[in-house]
Amino acid sequence: MMTTTADLADDEISDAERVFDELVAHEKRIEPRDWMPEAYRKTLIRQISQHAHSEIIGMQPEGNWITRAPSLKRKAILMAKVQDEAGHGLYLYSAAQTLGITRDTMTQQLIDGKAKYSSIFNYPTPTWADMGAIGWLVDGAAIVNQVPLCRASYGPYGRAMVRVCKEESFHQRQGFEILLTLMQGNEEQRAMAQDAVNRWYWPSLAMFGPPDDQSPNSAQSMKWKIKRFTNDELRQRFVGMLVPQAEILGVTLPDPELRFDEETGEYAMGEIDWDEFFEVLRGNGPCNAERLERRRTAHEEGAWVREAAAEYTRKQALRAERQAA
Ligand code: FAQ
Fold first, then answer.
1. How far apart are CA 141 and CA 121, in angstroms?
2. Could you read off the pLDDT of 187-229 as tens digits, one per residue?
3. d(CA 254, CA 46)
4. InterPro entries recorded for this chain (predicted)?
5. Which sequence spans correspond to the domains of the chain?
6. Rounded to the nearest whole angstrom, what is the distance from the C-alpha of residue 295 to the centroid of ligand 1?
7. For the domain 18-324, what is the CATH code?
8. What are the pocket residues of ligand 1 if the criterion is a CB atom closer than 6 Å to any ligand atom?
9. What is the pTM of this model?
């Protein structure tokens, strides 16, 4: 049973708040039955639902290549990967539901265009090499962002992340392997791989969110131990991971200013196009309209499945009632 602030008297709230603060301070998990500040609940619903929507919308750019994968083996792998993303969406919607929001409400917010999902999924996938670049860069960024979320203070979110990260790490390796195969191919194949890396590199850096001085949610989310690192810290970690892998692949990262700064011990990098990022967030990216339309149509076309499932549940309950009588 969920305990909300409305259930408690004022002195009980301060006791509950003290217990909450202690649990967070001692790296203990907050569970659905525990009291939590309303703002904590709201932040979690915001982040987890956006994350779930990202996984679901994120099926589309790769889904585009299932019918055109270059071999049966590649097709089977891609289908499994896209199905994994659907599974991640389901774990995440389930985690958000423990906070008192329904799946229907979240879905409605998404198809009405009122909910955010990751900027990255609003870019097109014109070539097979995009499957490699998405796996290497997008899943790579997702892992760097999500491994610390396995320690998120909210139990259902952190536990969902453990499984998600295991699967993402397989996804990343399959993307790397697609690019490696192309880079060992002919000139045209190598050019295709480099072109995909050129197009996905900057959007994958933007996935980590706005720079720290323009990230309104980071400070509070870190105090609550939902986030463990800032957006810029994780972006920096990601670039550090990519540089040696790009060398093995033989691809160039498309940032002429990228260099290791001995003094700071960090990579110095060129400026991300934040205007483009905020335009994508406002719904004006290259594929925003297409992604939402596809999701809306799929939801409408799936209405009969939801109705059939509800009817089956109703009949099962009736049968159980009759047997009990
Ligand atoms: N896109 O104050 P902050 C994947 C919004 S899963 C769109 O820094 P916060 C798997 C942010 O929501 C990818 N919006 O916010 C896969 C906020 O707006 P709001 C998704 C963004 O929450 C791979 C505002 O900007 N991963 O890739 C973005 O502290 C391949 C201000 O930002 C997650 O969701 C963005 N990139 O930090 C699937 C991970 N960045 O809500 C298929 C969990 C920021 O105030 C194929 N989420 N915004 O209106 C997080 O870690 C955090 O929510 C951040 C943002 C880091 C994304």
1. 13
2. 999 999 999 999 999 999 999 999 999 999 999 999 999 999 9
3. 33
4. Aromatic_CoA_ox/epox (IPR052703), Ferritin-like (IPR012347), Ferritin-like_SF (IPR009078), PaaA (IPR011881), PaaA_PaaC (IPR007814)
5. 18-324
6. 19
7. 1.20.1260.10
8. 46-47, 50-51, 54-55, 58, 85, 116, 118-119, 134, 138-139, 142, 145, 206-210, 215-218, 221, 227, 231, 281
9. 0.95
